[in-house]
Amino acid sequence: MNIEMLFHETFMSRYSSFKCFNEFLRKGNFDVKILEDIDNIPDELFDRHVDRETDFGSWKSMLDRANEEFLSVEG
């Protein structure tokens, strides 16, 4: 799955102050090319960034919501 498809502009604008997921990552100085790269970031560090910069308290809750919304549109 493509990061931009999952965390599209509407999703990011709704739940954060960013227009795209890459802006969100750059703000935290994270180098992510594919979704699996996020697995290499310490959970505590990424959760803190998600909590500070979005409406979500953790990366898991942000990812879960993105997947739910993606599946409801696709399904």
Task: Explain the overall architecture.
- The two termini are 15 Å apart.
- The chain has helices at residues 3-6, 9-15, 21-27, 43-53, 59-74.
- It is globular and about 35 Å long.
- It is 60% helix and 0% strand.
- It is built from five helices and no strands.
- The chain is mainly alpha-helical and 75 residues long.
- The longest helix is centred in the C-terminal third of the chain and has 16 residues, at 59-74.
Order of helices and strands: HHHHH
Distance between the termini: 15 Å
Percent strand equals under 5%
Largest sheet: none
Which regions have little confidence, pLDDT < 50, spanning 5+ residues?
Answer: none
How many runs of DSSP E, i.e. beta strands? 0
Task: List the total number of helices.
Answer: 5
Mean pLDDT: 93
Shape: globular
Give a short synopsis of this structure.
This protein has 75 residues and is an all-alpha fold.
